[in-house]
Amino acid sequence: MTAQPVRPRVMGIVNVTPDSFSDGGRFFDPAAALDQARRLIDEGADILDIGGESTRPGATPVPAAEEIARVVPLIAAIRAVSDVAISIDTMKPAVARAAVAAGATIWNDVAALRFAPRTSEMGTSEMGAPEVAAELGCEVILMHMLGEPGTMQDDPRYDDVVAEVEAFLLARALTAMAAGVEREKIWLDPGIGFGKTPAHNLALLAALPRFVALGYPVLLGASRKRFIATLDPLGAEPTARLGGSLAAHLHGAAAGVAAVRAHDVRETVQALAVWGAIGGAAQGRPRP
Question: Per CATH, is 9-116+128-279 categorized as 3.20.20.20?
Fold first, then answer.
């Protein structure tokens, strides 16, 4: 009998932004953000993913200093009351560095450490993202994104989306390791909804076992994504996509992903608990 995959960890989302696609800036206020973080911990989140810059399609970039001002006080406040794992959702090495100093232990990078270093007026360059990740020594999540948030949904095209995303992620993992990031600290994320059509997203979801077989922990971020609305016209609003989100999470769990990124933490934890109990019963394991 084939063993059931281990239950994935649940990564709860706290967007400290005024323009998130999923919550419309509900947690932009620092007090509201901390309340939400505490709520997600109580609901069973294993990781909190803190973001200070929206990466929704068409999003406008935020200066690093402003992003740091949004996320660092929240990370410090969470760390003061909880030892929950904290990830920083950022493309910028400076933000990652400040977040780790405040208590984050995971860098969740939608750009897969491709943020280009700038050259100062004195001719010196900032350290590149892979080198910063190696210096920080934290876990790093490398995500595939075609283009950048502002343009990624402008007619994305692939010859073979699964093969191209796989090749990209393996190349970025090699780049990270060449810079000194330990292999054991690298995660992969196929980037559902980041420069993909609904058909691309479904192909990547179907291919999750292939990504898991690469030997790196895989993060699945399908929560409230727009492709769900293309399958269910009543899911036009992000908050109306819970059923589709849970279906994707359970599919990811069966494929062996290491974590699912979720807006609806309580419902996701419950769904995974039932999934795990059913799988355990099928294999004759006692219910916990």
Answer: yes
